[in-house]
């Protein structure tokens, strides 16, 4: 068996144009999959932070290499001989994975052939089912089904749970919003986004676990908010409070200091209490709710009516 040096693994990853360049062309036969698993284990062992540090490789670089190796391996394991490119096969459809959208410690999200359909794949083998199906039903019972995507189908491929879902047209990530308003949003514009995030978390009655600029989507014209990237249930109820506070700080910058201070100070409150206190703050800062048109660079002016 080839003994890999950590630097060799980093070079292999850096030069790879696809998962095939690392794990080879055969991911569809039992023998090919066994060979790929052996290679994956050997490469991961080589860049383990302890071994990497002993070999003179920076621990942070080793951690990045490990994450990228896992991503490439996940992509490689979805490839089938009858389909060009990585894909997953569900009970009803096959979803060709067109490129990674984002990754969290537990989940990787991909584009598909359909621009409105995404696939989220659990990184770890054997983790609990992804919760979107349950959440959609739970929020639909509260007439809040528009706040999470509706699942098209889900299955398990090589031990990895995955879910395909369809987004409404016009949804944009907070990362795109932040790019359009890098100095910070007007506090009144952020207010309707933040309120809907808190409302969704409260209605779901569970930890999201991975709130980021990528997993929170908005519809500028309709003032819609949708949360994707829900992690399987786990402990740590304070995770979302800290993540919400981070979103406030990023999206507002220096434009609404009182809102940022509020989010940091209230991150350990219950969601219902936090939402109530936030509404009181907004009332004090801005008065009665009024609809504000919100656009991004390539969005037309909103024509719907509503409130923050």
What's the average pLDDT? 85
Q: How big a fraction of the residues is strand?
A: 15-25%
The computed structural class is alpha+beta
- CATH class group of the largest domain: Mainly Alpha
Main pleated sheet:
5 strands, antiparallel
Q: Walk across the major sheet and give the strand order.
A: 3-4-5-7-6
How many helices does DSSP assign? 11
Number of domains: 3
In angstroms, what is the radius of gyration? 22 Å
**N- and C-termini, Cα separation:** 61 Å
Anisotropy-based shape: globular
CATH fold descriptor of the largest domain: Transferase(Phosphotransferase), domain 1
Q: What's the number of extended β-strand segments?
A: 10
CATH architecture term of the largest domain: Orthogonal Bundle
The topology string of helices and strands comes to: HHHHHEEEEEHEEEHHEEHHH
| Residues in helices, as a percent range | 40-55%
Any overview of this molecule?
- The protein is of the alpha+beta class.
- It folds into three domains: 6-77, no CATH class; 87-166, 2-Layer Sandwich (Phosphorylase Kinase, domain 1); 172-286, Transferase(Phosphotransferase), domain 1 (Orthogonal Bundle).
- The protein contains eleven helices and ten strands.
- The protein has helices at residues 6-15, 20-23, 30-46, 49-54, 59-77, 132-140, 174-180, 187-204, 238-252, 257-265, 271-286, and strands spanning 87-89, 94-96, 99-103, 107-111, 117-122, 150-157, 160-166, 172-173, 216-219, 224-227.
- The strands form three sheets. Strands 3-4-5-7-6 form a five-stranded antiparallel beta sheet, covered by helices on one side.
- Helix 8 (187-204) packs antiparallel against helix 9 and helix 9 (238-252) packs antiparallel against helix 10 (257-265).
- The longest helix has 19 residues, at 59-77.
- The N and C termini lie far apart (61 Å).
- The model is unreliable at 80-84 and 299-307 (pLDDT under 50).
């Amino acid at each position: 068996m080839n003994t890999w040096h950590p630097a060799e693994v980093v070079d292999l990853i850096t030069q790879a144009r696809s998962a095939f360049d690392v794990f080879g062309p055969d991911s569809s036969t039992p023998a090919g999959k066994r060979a790929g698993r052996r290679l994956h284990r050997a490469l991961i062992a080589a860049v383990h932070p302890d071994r990497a540090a002993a070999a003179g490789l920076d621990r942070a670089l080793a951690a990045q290499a490990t994450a990228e190796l896992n991503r490439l391996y996940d992509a490689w394991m979805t490839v089938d001989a009858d389909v060009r490119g990585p894909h997953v096969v569900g009970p009803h459809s096959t979803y060709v994975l067109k490129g990674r959208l984002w990754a969290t410690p537990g989940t990787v999200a991909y584009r598909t052939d359909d621009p409105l359909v995404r696939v989220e794949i659990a990184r770890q083998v054997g983790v609990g089912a992804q919760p979107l199906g349950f959440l959609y039903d739970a929020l639909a019972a509260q007439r809040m089904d528009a706040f999470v995507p509706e699942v098209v189908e889900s299955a398990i491929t090589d031990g990895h749970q995955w879910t395909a879902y369809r987004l409404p047209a016009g949804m944009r990530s907070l990362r795109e919003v932040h790019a359009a308003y890098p100095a910070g949003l007007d506090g009144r514009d952020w207010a309707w986004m933040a309120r809907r995030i808190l409302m969704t978390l409260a209605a779901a009655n569970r930890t999201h676990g991975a709130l980021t600029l990528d997993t929170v989507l908005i519809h500028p014209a309709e003032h819609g908010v949708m949360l994707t990237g829900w992690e399987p249930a786990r402990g740590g109820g304070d995770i979302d409070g800290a993540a919400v506070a981070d979103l406030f700080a990023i999206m507002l910058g220096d434009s609404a200091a009182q809102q940022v201070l509020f989010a940091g100070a209230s991150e350990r409150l219950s969601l219902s209490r936090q939402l109530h206190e936030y509404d009181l703050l907004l009332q004090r800062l801005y008065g009665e709710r009024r609809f504000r048109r919100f656009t991004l660079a390539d969005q037309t002016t909103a024509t719907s009516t509503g409130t923050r």
